[in-house]
Amino acid sequence: MQRVCFLLKVRADRLAEYRERHAAVWPEMLRALSRSGWRNYSLFLREDGLLVGYLETEDFAAARAAMEATDVNARWQAEMSGFFESPDGARPDEAMRPLTEVFHLD
């Protein structure tokens, strides 16, 4: 199992709405993530907008590609992209760059 952690930055003026949107994630989005191999997926948001994502999957590249192939992902990304600071204009799902794991207590 591959553990993946990534960072994104939510716009400070949209933090409350971002939290609200994640209180009611579309059921079809949840199903697509599960079917695409995203397990134990969590998002953590700091008050300054730093977003930490964590998930476990067999193959992150394959899990991302499987999500990319879904209609619901395209709709979700279009709705959510305005919440993020993205200097290079990348969509949030494209901006997920896994951090290097340096320790894991097993």
Task: Describe the protein.
This protein is of the alpha+beta class. A three-stranded antiparallel beta sheet has the order 1-3-2, with no helix packed on it. It is built from five helices and three strands. The protein is globular. It has helices at 15-23, 27-35, 60-68, 71-80, 92-95, and strands at residues 2-9, 39-45, 50-57. 39% of the residues lie in helices and 22% in strands. The protein has one domain (2-95): Alpha-Beta Plaits (2-Layer Sandwich). One of its GO terms (biological process) is rhamnose catabolic process. This is L-rhamnose mutarotase.
Write a brief structural summary.
The chain has one domain: Alpha-Beta Plaits (2-Layer Sandwich), CATH 3.30.70.100. The protein is built from five helices and three strands, in the order E-H-H-E-E-H-H-H.
User: Could you tell me how far the N terminus lies from the C terminus, measured between alpha carbons in angstroms?
Assistant: 13 Å
- Assign the structural class, choosing from mainly alpha, mainly beta, alpha/beta, alpha+beta, or little secondary structure: alpha+beta
Number of domains: 1
The SSE string, one letter per element, is EHHEEHHH
Number of strands: 3
Kindly report the CATH topology: Alpha-Beta Plaits
* Largest beta sheet: strand ordering: 1-3-2
Percentage of residues in DSSP E strands: 15-25%
- The first-level CATH class is given as Alpha Beta
**For the report, how would you describe the main beta sheet?**
3 strands, antiparallel
The CATH architecture category equals 2-Layer Sandwich
Uncertain runs: none
**Percent range for helical residues?**
25-40%
Rounded to an integer in angstroms, the radius of gyration calculated over CA atoms is 14 Å
Instruction: Write down the overall geometry.
Output: globular
User: How many helices in DSSP terms?
Assistant: 5
Assembly state of the chains shown: single chain
Overall residue-averaged pLDDT value: 94
